Amino acid sequence: MSLTIAPILPSFGAEVSGVDIAKPLDERTRSAIIDAQNKYGVTVWRKTGLDDETHIAFSRIFGHIELAPRIAGRPYRHAHRELFDASNLDAEGRIIQDELVRLHKRGDRLWHTDSSFMEMRSAQSLLLCHEAPPEGGETWFADTRTAYEDLPQAMKDRIEGLEARHSLWWSRSRAGFPLSEEEIDARPHARHPLVHIHRGSGRKALYIAAHARDIIGMPREEGRALLRELIEFATQPKYVFSVTYEPGDMVIWDNLCSMHRGGEFDDLRYRRDMRRTTIREGAAPERPDDPFTELFAASGVTAFGGRPAAPARNGGPR
Prior knowledge:
Number of strands: 15
Order of helices and strands: EEHEHEHEEHHEHHEEEEHEEEEH
Largest sheet: 7 strands, mixed
CATH superfamily: Clavaminate synthase-like
Mean pLDDT: 93
Strand content: 15-25%
Number of helices: 9
């Protein structure tokens, strides 16, 4: 069998079929899938037949799978830590009612790039639908390669060499989670360039979105205004499309050449069970590590959804 590829936008996003990804794949097919991912940035797979185990097994063709964090007060719904829970369900499968947890999750409805708040960046994310609401709950994607290429030359010159500081807690505060600027300053940040070369395609891309809090060496409000301008440019309709889901559908996106956000839905009425594997950029670590658990511990989080206790200051402006 060979891949069938139907582009969504001219150079961004494609629906892919023709291969049963629930079964082991030969090297030629694996390479073709990776090539399609590098070219289009987002690939959509319908009726995959994947379960938790085959989801994880297929994900390994892209590299090292990150582990979901261990957080006190948050028991796992899943048997495998390779699965990040992107649902609105608690450990017993009930719709989450806790308002702080809901506010934390609402950050996913902002344009963002998975895990840009980590020093070790995430590359591919593979999101599998197990249950979808009857309306809403789609995912929107934006093309940060073509957007960069279309920027005026004066803007390209302005942002070349600039770095942004990224913080999980900044994006959560923007979604309504109760944290002050001082509390966010005290928590870990990561530094990344605003523009980088996407290795899979050799094209330059913006690396921005909701976790990007400010720009190194620039007054905070000036940097935020620049970030807003870039995000607004990159999310014009010509760079954007959405994906709706049925159970068994999967979307793979490359965080290093795209942004995404969750669509609105009535999360107190409808269940949305989505599970994500996340691939770390670059080679696998030489020794097992657990950076997401370390991040939450360094942020002073003692229970998921609870207001973090103030840790020692280690992430303020520099």
